[in-house]
Amino acid sequence: MNVKNSLLLFTLFILINACHQIQALKFKNIDRFEIESASLKETQISLDLIIENPNAFTIDVKKIRCALYKDDQQIGTINSDSLMHFMAKKDATIRLHTSVESKKIISNAFDMLLNADQSVRFKIIGTATIGRGNIFITIPVQYSMEKKWNEIVQ
Questions:
Q1: What is the DSSP string of 18-36?
Q2: What superfamily would CATH give domain 23-152?
């Protein structure tokens, strides 16, 4: 095999691997709710989102626009414009920040104290802009999970 054929085969191999369709990131868990600051009007909360990249290549996320729900009631929004890198076939934890009306926190705090081992359903619904290189697409995000209060709040 001469150099020209080897180069052609190598280029073909690179093109085939580069053309794989991007699979959406998989949301695996919500963990560690923490209150960062509180006022009478608004409470700043942070949470860890554990995400799996099912692709055989690194994925970049450059924008997240989502709403956070507890038992079908929107309690906050999650917005991020930070560029994040998710390694191929690996899980990653990202720290997200959200603002919640303080009156919703107070009602949830009573619920949490009285029902610490009761299950609560959380949902994240919105969009994320993902890609690699200079090619990005906006995909829908829909994730829900059920957890007990005492498993989340630390």
A1: HTPPPPPPEEEEEEEEEEE
A2: Immunoglobulins (2.60.40.10)
